[in-house]
Structure formats: structure tokens, C-alpha cells
Amino acid sequence: MNHFRMRIEKDQCELPNRIVIDDYYVHEYSDWVNAVVITKENQIVLVEQYRYAGKDFFIEVPAGKIEENETYEEGIIREVREETGYISERTPIFLGDFMINPATQTNKVITFLMLDAYKEFEQDLDHTEEINIKLIDFNEMDSLIRAKQINTQLFTAHAYLMAKLYLLEKQLKI
Question: Partner of 113 for a Cys bridge, out of 11, 23, 93, 129, CB 3.0 to 4.6 A?
């Protein structure tokens, strides 16, 4: 069972300049994890699923909430395996934790990079999930995003950029 928290809190907000906003709404959500998963063949493993609020299908990096008593690393390994069936013998590389929307939200996305992944299992989806796996050459991903040839969201584009920068800095294959 996912350990998920969501609450909307009405606060009185005092800004650094001493202006007070009486009805300031803060959205309290659980943190989540995501990962750029790259296969031994240099393909990025993506998931395509319908997003109700976006009213369309989106191509995204694997992501999800951590379960109770799970570390972020354990959570992303589990999420990637459940959503895609892919695993890696290498430890996930922490790329950073980033606030989602610090103006009104309390949560972060914790981003990892998984290298040398390979398909070992079938998907293990919840009954409400319908996820299609997409494999795209890692080096083509940025042009697909810029040209809007894939329908994706900010967190996927950001995770991809973080992974690409990491690989360039470490002079690893890309």
C-alpha cells in the first residue's frame, strides 16, 4: 500500500516584507521519486499513461510515491520494476531533490539515474494503472522534447536534463 499524504491547509502567511495574506492555501503532498532509466543499448525507458488532469496521454520517466519505511532508493527501484519490469545491477545514482512548486506545495521529487538496465520481469501494475513502455534512443530524447514530438511533462524533461548533464560531467557514454 502506498504511503500517500495530501492535505490542503489554510494558513495566515507573513511575507519577508511583513505583508500578511490571511487566506493562503498550502498543498501538503508526499514526496515522490523518479528515475531516468537507460538500458545497456543506450535507450531511455519511458512509460506512457493517461493523465486525467492533462486530458491526454503523457510519456514520462518511471515515478511514484515511496511506501512506508522505504528509502527513496528502494522506492525508485520498486517503482521502476513494477511499472516497466526493468532492473539494473548498478546502484541508482542520486541526481538531486527538487521542490515541485514551493509557492504552494510542500513536496519534492527525488530524481535518480539508473544505468545498464535490462528487462527482467513483467509489469506489476495496480488495477487502476494502464502503462505502455516506450524505448527511445537517449540521444534523441532532447530533440523529441524540443520539437514537441512526444507529449511529456516538466518532471520528465527536468530528469532527462539532469541525467544528461551528469553523464556529460562524468564523461560517460551518451
Answer: 93
